[in-house]
Amino acid sequence: MKRLLAHIIIKAKTPLKVGSGDSDLFYDAPVQRDFNGLPMILGTSLAGILRAKFKGEIANEIFGSDKNEFGSRLIISNALLVDENGKVCEELLLESKKSEFIKIFDRLPIREHTAIDEKGATKQGSKFDEEVVYKGTMFKFSIEFLAQNDDDELKFQDVLNTLSDPTLRLGGGSSKGFGSFDVESIKTAEVDLKEYSSSLNYDVNWKKHKLNLADKSDFIKYELRLTPDDFFVFGSGFGDNDVDQIPVFEKVVDYNKRALSDEQILIPASSIKGALAHRTEFHDYKFMLDSGSDEYKETGDENAAVREIFGYKKDKNDNDGRKGKILISDCFKNFDNNTKVFEHVSIDRFTGGAIDGALFQEKTLATKEQFDIEILIKNDAKENELCAFEKALLDVSDGLLPLGGATTKGHGFFNGEVRKNDKNLERKNA
Known about the structure:
This protein is an alpha+beta fold. Helix content is 18%, strand content 28%.
């Protein structure tokens, strides 16, 4: 029996929501942290997303099952943070020994969320926040495999190649833009148990593994390529020293500079998802009316198109929910400091005059940069529901559906194109 070993480094393409399952005094959903207080990813999470890509007896043979008395033949370690020197911290660090780079991760970005009802309004008492890991953060973990023959070595290669699948997502919130990652490096070796070490800093006669890119034919790839018409804002919920409301920005980890980047413009996938869900529901109703049907259809996540594409939660009757068929990624863009401040005041509806003390300022973005938003949809989505979704995408690219906040004030209109599997998507009906 051979023990095959691989050390893998992955890099977050989008922020990661690797929740601890608990809440604390500061956040509703903090991330998992190791004994040094650094973000980490549990090996069980990695094993779960890999097993989901294997079917039938192959999955049972590699990952084990109730009928397999030997259990899993794979051993997957926790993924630990990679420091500025390409190492992981496997020993307890005193606070005074932490580098400036490591201290970056003491405070992580916070994402504010609120539940939206079928009318597009905020549900009462539904606000919550989540801690996420910076985009660009790198983690390292190991995979060990007990191989008995040459066929087993091929199975080990298949497991490693599965990591290249662009539809893999780590942690939660995959439909909100979280969890996408790239494989930075994979090193493999056949190790002797007499010399073996479980350390992620273990050095041996490594071979570089070249990934065979996984087939992604089970998903349809859409790209929204959008340029702002004018001003837009995705609100952060906070102000600064100059104005009461500012756009949401977020920094990313830069390993070359061994520091955080400057603030970048963030278009949260959750904001795009909400707008698309409501417009998909609209087009689903329009199909019904155009066909001459007067059949009643439910709203919100009871609507057939919304349920098919975006999923639905467990209801009050304990009927199980279902995850959506959509994967959407957060969009980041370098900030060029082009902003515009608008002055606003609330108006008394009776007198038509300004309400005393109701003046506030709002900062919007005025860039003309192109934003590329990637969306993946499982190709088993039903045809009519998928058609309604595609019309919603075209509404965004044609400037018919604004995105972000303050859309009733004229902000958030974009123009551009929609790409479907690398070809332009055209509107079939006017």
